[in-house]
TrEMBL record:
<comment type="similarity">
    <text>Belongs to the ATP-dependent AMP-binding enzyme family.</text>
</comment>
<dbReference type="InterPro" id="IPR020845">
    <property type="entry name" value="AMP-binding_CS"/>
</dbReference>
<feature type="binding site">
    <location>
        <position position="510"/>
    </location>
    <ligand>
        <name>ATP</name>
    </ligand>
</feature>
<keyword id="KW-0460">Magnesium</keyword>
<dbReference type="InterPro" id="IPR032387">
    <property type="entry name" value="ACAS_N"/>
</dbReference>
<feature type="modified residue" description="N6-acetyllysine">
    <location>
        <position position="620"/>
    </location>
</feature>
<dbReference type="GO" id="GO:0003987">
    <property type="term" value="F:acetate-CoA ligase activity"/>
</dbReference>
<dbReference type="InterPro" id="IPR011904">
    <property type="entry name" value="Ac_CoA_lig"/>
</dbReference>
<feature type="binding site">
    <location>
        <position position="536"/>
    </location>
    <ligand>
        <name>ATP</name>
    </ligand>
</feature>
<keyword id="KW-0067">ATP-binding</keyword>
<feature type="binding site">
    <location>
        <position position="552"/>
    </location>
    <ligand>
        <name>Mg(2+)</name>
    </ligand>
</feature>
<feature type="domain" description="AMP-binding enzyme C-terminal">
    <location>
        <begin position="541"/>
        <end position="620"/>
    </location>
</feature>
<feature type="binding site">
    <location>
        <position position="533"/>
    </location>
    <ligand>
        <name>CoA</name>
    </ligand>
</feature>
<keyword id="KW-0479">Metal-binding</keyword>
<dbReference type="Pfam" id="PF16177">
    <property type="entry name" value="ACAS_N"/>
</dbReference>
<feature type="binding site">
    <location>
        <begin position="201"/>
        <end position="204"/>
    </location>
    <ligand>
        <name>CoA</name>
    </ligand>
</feature>
<keyword id="KW-0547">Nucleotide-binding</keyword>
């Protein structure tokens, strides 16, 4: 996109930006809002001072810090320099000391229907025992611990036990292969692996330990011990001396453990992101700044009233959302949360809503892909349950199309719960763009406004801020507390990936647009933006148009190379349950619908009706694979898909 063509980019995006529905917070909601309007002005006046106040209010420091921000070694920031803090103490012990020991920290719901709850006092005890156990296995401050666990309380316990002793956790999502696990173990040189015999998936036991055994079968690794949680009771093979049952080590450990203070910049964790190409990047986060922004955003964006709310974030601990908004922020803020092990359709498609009803969940944080799946299953399923406890809804992970947003609001939120669409990344550590629910009049499909104290902008090719009503690249102009401190073992790659596109600004890799009010709309990764006959089209916008057709459940759009137009729009759609595929007639109907919604330029050249879409395990559509299909190539590596057979299903369907 050149400066000259930048304004044209806007034209094709009008569809999304003509969205003019607004939902102001109700007077009752606004009256009890945690976030106060003064935050924006305070942050604008002195950003580091604003974050320093948050750091001191939200965390208990063993030693107060001297400097809020040291940016002298940019682009590596230091926040709250000289301060000392312990993440686990802040998440646990201090609540017990403050008389909140009996408050439930976690209501765990297993897939087979077993459940257990941990109070803050109980969770503190478990973490102390795990900390002692890991130390007895030789884990020291700064050592790396690989975590390959399902969504069970032991995952949170393990992470907090590492944080307590200053060991750096590196969670590898339980759905990743043995090879992926090994490469992450090697890259971080992990000393300990914490895993489980397995978990449950759709009512069946699903193994984990065999992948660890396979990962460690070849020589040359750094792992000394494997601690194994017994979860599904399936038989596992055992390496004597190396393998230890959780119940034997953690179970036998002392429940006395004194947390030691860590420097604010002490590394807290590494989390590998799936990176579009090549080797995964080990995103490094440190302690004080990360915890401050995670806790601040969690309290203000989710309007958390810890005494009364029941919070449920459906993310797996294998993703950054499961770190910031399951493990750290809710516990730092003293919240009561729900944790669910399994899939949304086990044993039936109402499982989530049954859980909401059972625990009276008041704050629900999930992803657009889940919302669209529930839309596909039909509103009569959630309508069978009492969802009246819900008072706030959150969305994360992808742009949420206005149809899904409206459905979420009406069917799940009872037409009253504000929706916060939260934009952020593994790299940003915590939410960066989001409405504040008691203050912002929300717009279906837009993440809208930067969090107070965060300097987001949309710039053109030359790095110039675009005027309202125009699109470009999303950047962050100033360092923020929870920003990544680098890529593990590869400082150059950190600079190249994020700081070379625009010299002094962080390049997020997302396309975005400011509407006439200056609100930000996320338009997908910049590699998802197509150029058709010189017009820039957003995959998100066309997908959104397709999904607004009553026959369509889900859609994914790619730009396929085209001799005449540069790129051509190719759409993959899943029809709603009960809708018949009438071949060419259906295709024509959908093409015309997009033509009507956006304009003839956006009409897909091809519409392919498919049974499933290829998604990563975090629910992101793998457009790269669809592009291969659209361009007539054999889709390459599909191993990172949640369901690796999806591509075969699509190929088989297209051959019909
Ligand atoms: C938290 C998380 C980051 C990428 C990001 C963007 C997309 C996340 C979004 C969103 C539009 C939102 N993304 N939230 N796009 N609206 N509310 O998902 O982290 O897995 O690192 O993904 O996800 O493209 O760049 P991560």
């Amino acid at each position: 996109m050149s400066e000259e063509t930048a304004p044209a980019a806007g034209d094709a995006l009008e569809n999304l930006l003509q969205e003019n529905r607004r939902f102001a917070p109700s007077p009752e909601f606004a009256a009890q809002s945690v976030a106060q309007a003064g935050l924006y002005a305070e942050a604008a006046q002195d950003r580091p001072a604003f974050w320093a106040r948050q750091a001191r209010e939200l965390l208990s420091w063993d030693k107060d810090f001297e400097t809020a921000l040291d940016w002298s070694e940019a682009p590596v920031a230091k926040w709250f320099v000289g301060g000392q803090v312990n993440a686990a103490y802040n998440a646990l012990d201090r609540h017990v000391e403050n008389g909140l020991g009996d408050r439930v920290a976690i209501h765990f719901e297993g897939e087979p229907g077993d459940s257990r709850s941990y109070t803050y006092a109980q969770l503190t005890q478990e973490v102390k025992k795990a900390a002692n156990a890991f130390e007895s296995l030789g884990v020291r401050k700064g050592d790396r611990v690989a975590v390959y666990l399902p969504m069970i309380p032991e995952a949170v316990i393990t992470l907090l036990a590492c944080a307590r002793i200053g060991a750096i956790h590196s969670v590898v999502f339980g759905g990743f292969s043995a090879d992926a696990l090994r490469s992450r173990i090697d890259d971080a040189e992990a000393k300990l692996v914490v895993t489980a015999d397995g978990t449950y998936r759709r009512g069946k036991p699903s193994p984990l330990k065999p992948a660890v055994d396979e990962a460690l079968s070849a020589e040359g690794h750094t792992v000394q011990n494997v601690v194994v949680v017994k979860r599904n009771g399936e038989a596992v093979s055992w390496t004597e001396g190396r393998d230890q049952w959780w119940d034997d080590t953690v179970g036998a450990a002392s429940a006395e453990h004194t947390p030691v203070p860590h420097d604010s910049e002490h590394p807290l964790f590494i989390l590998y992101t799936s990176g579009t190409t090549g080797k995964p990047k080990g995103i490094l986060h440190t302690t004080g700044g990360y915890l401050t922004q995670a806790a601040f955003t969690h309290r203000n964006i989710f309007d958390l009233h810890p005494e009364t709310d029941v919070y449920w974030c459906t993310a797996d601990v294998g993703w950054v959302t499961g770190h910031s908004y399951v493990t750290y922020a809710p516990l730092i803020n003293g919240a009561t949360q729900v944790m669910y092990e399994g899939t949304p359709d086990s044993p039936h498609q109402g499982r989530w809503w049954e859980i909401v009803q059972k625990y009276k969940v008041s704050i629900l944080y999930t992803a657009p892909t889940a919302i669209r799946t529930f839309m596909k299953w039909g509103r009569e399923i959630p309508e069978k349950y009492d969802l009246s406890s819900i008072r706030l809804l959150g969305s994360v992970g992808e742009p949420i199309n206005p149809e899904a947003w409206m459905w979420y609001r009406e069917v799940i939120g009872g037409n009253k719960a504000p929706i916060v669409d939260t934009w952020w990344q593994t790299e940003t550590g915590a939410i960066m763009i989001s409405p504040l629910p008691g203050l912002t009049a929300t717009k279906p499909g837009s993440a809208q406004v930067p969090v107070p104290g965060i300097a987001v902008d949309v710039v053109d090719e030359m790095g110039e801020s675009v005027p309202d009503g125009h699109g470009g690249f999303l950047v962050i102009r100033e360092p923020w507390p929870a920003m990544l401190r680098g890529i593990w073992g590869d400082p150059e790659r950190y600079k190249d990936t994020y700081w070379s596109r625009f010299d002094t600004m962080y390049f997020a890799g997302d396309g975005a647009k400011k509407d006439d009010d200056g609100d930000v709309w996320l338009l997908g990764r910049v590699d998802d933006v197509m150029n058709v006959s010189g017009h820039r089209l957003s995959t998100t916008e066309i997908e959104s148009a397709l999904v607004s057709h009553p026959s369509v459940a889900e859609a994914a759009v790619v730009g396929a190379n085209d001799e005449t137009t540069g790129q051509a729009v190719v759409a993959f759609v899943i029809l709603r349950e009960g809708v018949e595929n009438n071949g060419d007639a259906t295709v024509q109907e959908l093409r015309n619908h997009v033509g009507k919604e956006i304009g003839p330029i956006a009409k897909p050249k091809n519409v392919l009706v498919v049974p499933e879409l290829p998604k990563t395990r975090s629910g992101k559509i793998m457009r790269r694979l669809l592009k291969d299909v659209a361009e007539g190539r054999d889709p390459g590596d599909a191993t990172t898909l949640a369901d690796p057979t999806v591509m075969q299903q699509i190929a088989a369907d297209l051959r019909k």
